[in-house]
Structures
1.
Amino acid sequence: MEKSLKKFIDDAKKIYKECEAANSWPAKLGGYTLSREKTQEKIIDAAQKLAEIQLNANSKKNQLVALEKTLKITQDQQKHIVKIREQVQNTINDLRIKKVIEGDNSIVATLNAIEDNMGTLGANYDDPKIENIIQPDEKTTREELFKKIMAE
């Protein structure tokens, strides 16, 4: 459209100048017969449309540049987000592994605690503790207490 408008303006200006120089109106433009005033209007209209198209083209170019920059920033951010996502996933995996390891440690600690408790609950009759050996039995304790009471 821009090229055809430029060609029309160039042709119309040439025809206008020829008609003006020869004072031979009406002019023939694109198969149409136009008066001097109509030819001027068409040249003005075409020039305004061309200016508008060029302005829009420049605006579109600026928009394109802005979009390309925004796209670049967005792509960089997406790359950054992918890296962050990988780091988060790695952290989650590390936490899961740590939980399993700590869970295994807590299982071992729990088993050790149970074993210790079992040791205190169960008596080993073949190897009595010193505390159990030196402590008098109930019958001896009762006889001593009875003798003491009777002596009073």
2.
Amino acid sequence: MRTKLRCARCDKSAVYLARASGEPLCLRCLEKSLVKSVRRVLGRYAKLAPGTPIVVVEPLIAKPWLCSSYKILLKAVRSHRNRIVMVGYGGECPAHDHIDRVIQLDREEILEACRLHNNQHDRAACLYRAEYLSGTMVAEKLGINTVLLMRPRDLCSLIGVVGIIAMSLSLAVESLPFRRTHIGIQVINPLYGVGSQDLIAHAFSLNLVKEDLSCDPTLDLEGLPGYTDIQSIYMHSSEMIYSSSEAVREIFDKMPGSRCPLCSTPTEEGGYCYICSSLLPLLKKLLDTAR
């Protein structure tokens, strides 16, 4: 008869083997671990004052762990009583009931604008940049200083490595855990210390798996050359996820020259990068008519 695994932290029945540590964890300890990781990232980069508002941006291509990530984020900031404004595209999660305001944008118009780029890596960069710019533009409009993007550590690592291999700095820059715009808005990936597999395990345990997922292989990172090979390496080595994402961050930190004032992509002539320039008119129009 097989013996049930016990949680390494509280000795209750375990539901999951943590990806990074290999520890068996019960649902409560798994959730506490995820919340602690998010708080650690926010403490390192954001240092949020109690009660200050935050803009949270829903991913344009939703993943199964999305609703779980909202629950974790809300628990991580609850003690600070931060008000949350979400930039969304019509998706629904139970956690939305605890969000103060949702600003809806037209997902299809944004995706169509990204499809206009001929280069595959530019299309993927456009997808992630649209999330970034939507958040910073809403933050500027509402006088908010902090924007959060929902991207787990392994996704950030894949974005960075694929972008560096393809010499697409516009894509690779979207992997960074922290950026600041020229007007001082800070953009943070609070899930930078969390893996998507841990989030999916949490989502399944709480029946929070998001099933109405949007999918577009012409835009998503999964359709890019080399993605499958890199992901298969990550599946067997969690250390690669952490080391590669930190390597990409160091590459950008040491890169000389001018940067796009909006997204920090290195540019040859200064001013806005071409991805930001292509998106700004559309996003301004959408925000002017947003509910």
